[in-house]
Amino acid sequence: MTVSLPLIFVLGGITWFAIKFLGVRVWVVVVIALFGFWLSHTVLAPVIESGTRSGVDVVNR
User: Fold this and answer.
1) φ and ψ at 8, to 5 degrees?
2) What's the confidence (pLDDT) of residue 39?
3) How far apart are CA 35 and CA 32, in angstroms?
4) What are the strands, taking DSSP E only, across 1-61?
5) For residues 55 and 47, is the Cβ–Cβ distance under 8 A?
6) What pLDDT band is residue 1 in, cutting at 50, 70 and 90?
7) Which of 16, 18, 37, 56 could pair with 24 in a Cys bridge, judged by C-beta atoms 3.0 to 4.6 Å apart?
8) Cβ-based neighbours of 34, under 8 Å, separated by 6 or more
9) What's in the keyword line of the UniProt record (predicted)?
10) pLDDT tens, 3-51?
11) Which residues, at least 6 apart from 24, have a Cβ–Cβ distance to it below 8 Å?
12) Closest by alpha carbon to 11, among 28, 35, 29, 34?
């Protein structure tokens, strides 16, 4: 059986777990999210996207 789950839900679950059980502060999560948002507007964005897609393909095989 194949289950399709968007990556944003997986990352959201990991974030919730980190805040709830690992004691990560919310402001740290916000700073990391903003860094990712700003990083997506740089020349590194296509490299990051292709690397993410390759990683997801490896996991899905």
Assistant:
1) -65, -35
2) 85
3) 5
4) none
5) no
6) low
7) 18
8) none
9) Membrane, Transmembrane, Transmembrane helix
10) 777 888 888 899 999 999 999 999 998 888 888 888 888 898 899 889 9
11) 18
12) 29
Does the structure show a pLDDT above 90 at 52? no
Output the CA torsion sign for 53, 55, 11, 26.
Answer: negative
The C-alpha atoms of residue 34 and residue 21 are separated, in whole angstroms, by 22
Q: What letter represents residue 60's amino acid?
A: N
Residue where the block lists tokens 């789950």: 5
Q: What is the pLDDT of residue 21?
A: 94
> CA geometry: angle at 19 spanning 16 and 21, to 5°?
95
